[in-house]
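Dear Dr. H.,

I hope your travels went smoothly. While you were away I took the liberty of generating a structure for the chain from your last submission, since the lab meeting agenda had it listed for discussion. I wanted you to have the full record in hand beforehand rather than looking at slides cold. The sequence, exactly as received, is reproduced here:
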Amino acid sequence: MKIGDLEFTNIAFLAPMAGIADRAFRELCTQFGAAYTVTEMVSSKGLTMGDKKSGELLTIGNERPCGAQIFGDDPEIMAQAAVKCLEYNPNIIDINMGCPAPKVAMNGGGASLMKKPQLAYEITKAVVEAVEIPVTVKIRKGWDDDNINAVEMALLAQKAGASAVAVHGRTRQQMYSGTVDYDIIAEVKNALDIPVIANGDITDEQTAAIMLEKTNADAIMIGRGALGNPWVFSRINAYLSECRVLPEPSTIEKMNVMLKHIQKIIEYKGEYTAMREARHHAAYYTKGMRGGAKLRAEISKYEHFEQLQELSYRIIKEAKL
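The corresponding predicted structure, in token form, is as follows:
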């Protein structure tokens, strides 16, 4: 599996997720075997205007290879943003044409480009011509059930010079509901000469294997399935490469990894921000635990890392009884 000159041994990638796939989470997933990660999406307009937050989102640490994802609807500005991204030394520039969020899709970016194939082509071509590193495109099945055009969009991306295409097997109208459409991803794979990355409903080694079997994709991209579950990558890698099923992580491991994760967020963003983001992450790390709802309600009130530590130690102590 190659994207441009980048060669991948493992094929389980972390999907870009706004508000989730920050530097701390990307580094954690890389440590657990994610072969490739992508930054949170950055507005091309904001980046070219010198927005400070955009720069922070593009900061890449040890999580390599890592792509920088940008969104927008103006080819010239997208090209300028891609060049600006190079200051942060990404391995790939990724163009978001799949985000369903209203604030993005209703303002010309993200999945709205599924309705404008020609503009999507012009954007991709402009970005490819502006940078010397590989450019990839992330799309959806289509805008809605009456407008399924993933194959057309993927072919245009390839024609424009993209080095790979990632496909989420749902329409924008579906958002994240319903089930992923394996067939549309398989159709894209059959139509393209460049690598195709399959995305949607991959939560463990079994769903990863099913996705690959049904689509023949070159790689898979895990999004929500990695929340509170970074070891999903090591499990998938072991299953795909060695047919091994690794044991489920223990409560002790879950708590230790959660604390490590939040500590990294504190390091990069400070305790105030990190503890508010911790509430969201902790909900996933404690999912399925006895009294989980009560735990999450308790965590939602925490202001300091020490409080989270104390709770984790309490959970671990109870698990040992």
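Two observations you may find useful: The longest helix spans residues 251-269. Residues 2-242 form a domain with the TIM Barrel fold (CATH 3.20.20.70).

With kind regards,
E. W.
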